[in-house]
Structures are given as structure tokens and as C-alpha cells.
Amino acid sequence: MAEDWTDRHVARWKDHWLDLAFDEAVEGVFVRVNRIDRYLRRAKQRAVAEVGLTDFEYDTLHVLMIRDTPGSASPTELATELGVSGAGMTGRLDGLEKAGWIRRIPAVEDRRRVIVEVTKAGMAIWRQAMDLRGRAEDDLAEALTERELATLNRLLKKVTVRSEEREG
Amino acid sequence: MAEDWTDRHVARWKDHWLDLAFDEAVEGVFVRVNRIDRYLRRAKQRAVAEVGLTDFEYDTLHVLMIRDTPGSASPTELATELGVSGAGMTGRLDGLEKAGWIRRIPAVEDRRRVIVEVTKAGMAIWRQAMDLRGRAEDDLAEALTERELATLNRLLKKVTVRSEEREG
DNA sequence: AGCGAATACTTAGGTGGCGAAGTATCCTCC
DNA sequence: GGAGGATACTTCGCCACCTAAGTATTCGCT
Q1: What CA–CA distance (Å, rounded) separates A59 from A146?
Q2: N or C, where is chain A less crowded by C-beta within 10 Å?
Q3: Contact A156/B34, CB-based, under 8 Å?
Q4: Cα distance from B100 to chain A (closest Cα, Å)?
């Protein structure tokens, strides 16, 4: 197979930094993981922009939709899952609410709480973006046979399992 | 093997969004790629913080060091490789220069240009961070046998090759 | 019952980053 | 050789996000 960016990266590394110990295969795997993630991030950004959402608006709608209780959550839950601060979440929700994609409902049983709920419009635009985004992923996946895809999935899972052990 | 975050994610998906067509294997692969990248990003952040660098300071030093001409580049080249704007680059370099990790040298043959050069201190702290960071990667890679690692690398490359075709 | 700690969210102040405009320098072509 | 455009970097105004402090409410303990 022709070389990819990662091959060139690893070759350069070997030339210039002989003294820094490193395993080519390990470096190759993780650099490629990073390149794939980066590519998909950009593809997502394009897809999402096409339907008229910013990256972070889509992300917020997305975690709101893929929960056990789809379309409904507290700001704190969303913030945790998105890896943003509570303050950041307030800002995002302000924007989403103003755009009409979510609404804030005061919780009756605990008046400190707020329930974030997606609106019909929010759900519709999220679905549009999802669809476009899925196409980019499917397109990439076509580089592999079904069998290869299954193997890749199995090996990646061994790695994620370990990473989740490390995180506790 | 026990289930990981991705298994739970895919299961939830199937329960709640039956109507949105999606391929489990494809979704599994790309969600795991994202989870691994996310884990390593955080591991890097911890490693880098330990030696006293912020994330973006390290990133900047890093691309500066792994070039064909290690330790020397123009701001524009760095900005392109880091995916930040020219303006953002100016800001980063201001900080790095103030901290004493790089210096700006006016280019003599073309006085519009500036040459960014790493200092001894900058190189030293980058190496420290590199070392710590490599350990997190090696630790993850130990989840796989050497043979599995090679297979994983081969399959990932098929995907990166396609992604690079798409980018032109 | 009531006081202090904990919880849920919002506001305030500061930082990195972006796009666009600005400044300086170099290249092209008549 | 001089005008117009391209190039390289910086400055400016704005935005999303962070940490820390603030407000409101509920829980826990005596």
C-alpha cells in the first residue's frame, strides 16, 4: 500500500530523534487513531455547518438526544458528558434556547433544578445533521471489508477496555 | 470480553433510535477511535501539566520539534500544521517567547519573515513531556499482542489512506 | 426545628482563539 | 522602475470557555 501521512511522520521521527526510544507500531497506531478522529471531526463540522448549526450546538443537541432519556436532561448531566464546565453549559443553553432548539423547564420536585428539553425544531435539525454526518463515516468504512471492520472493532475494543480500566 | 462504554452506547442507540439506519460495526469502530483519542488527549494533558506546560504550549513545541528541520520554522508553517489561525499563532508565540522556550529571529533574506527557534530550555522541557506522554501510550498498547498491534496498524492505515484521498 | 454543609445553576472576570483589517515587505509585469 | 498585487506577520474586536464567587434551595445532624 502507498504511504500515508503517518508513515512519513514515523520515518521523519526515526531520522531525527534516534536517541528517543519509541516503538514504531505503537506510534503508528495512535497517530493514525488521531488522524482518523481529526478527519471525522472536520467532516462532522462541515456536515453540521451545512444544516446551520455550529459544532458545539450540534454536540449539545447530540448528547441530549442519545441519552437513556432522549431529549431530556439536567444542565449538569450535559456538562459532564460534554466535558465542559457548568458555566460553559449555561452559555450553550442560552444560545440553544434563543435559537428555539431547546427549552428550560423548572423542576417541580426540586426547585434548584432545571430540566432541559429538546424542541421539535431541535430534534429535526439534529436528525438532518446526523444523517449527513453518518454518510462521512460510512464512506470511510468502505475502505474495509466487513470482515476487516469486525476485526478492527475487536482490536479497538481491547484498547478501550484497558483505557476504561485506567480511568477507573 | 466485558462490555465497554461503546457497547452500552450502541445498545442504547438501538433501543431508542430504531428508525435511524446505522451500521453497528461502523458506529462501534468510530466511537472507539474517538474514545481512544479522547483518553490519550487527557493523558497527554496530565503528562504535560506535570512538567509545567499547558496543552497548547506543548503542542506548539511539539510540531516545532518533529519537523524536517527540527527546532526551526516560520509562524505560518506552525499555524498550518497546528490548525490554528495566524492570529492565534502570534498569541501562542508571544507566550512561549516570554516563557523562554522559543525565540523569534528576523529573517535576513526576506524581512517580512520571522524564524521561530526553540531554545535549549524549550527542547529540554519538551523532551521531559514526551517521555511521560510516551508511557501512557505504551501502557495502552500493552492491551494488545505484537501481532494484534500489527494487524490494527494495517487496518487503521487502510482507513487513513482513504481519508487522505478524500482530503485531496 | 434550625443551622451548617451540600447541591444546582447562574453571574463575573479573565484567557485562548478566530476572522478581518492593518502594516511592512517583496514580486510581477508593463 | 514604479504601480498593483501577493505574502508574512501583527493588531483589533469578538466569542466560547474556564475558574471562582454568588444565589437559591435542599439535606443532614443535633
Answers
A1: 29
A2: C
A3: no
A4: 23
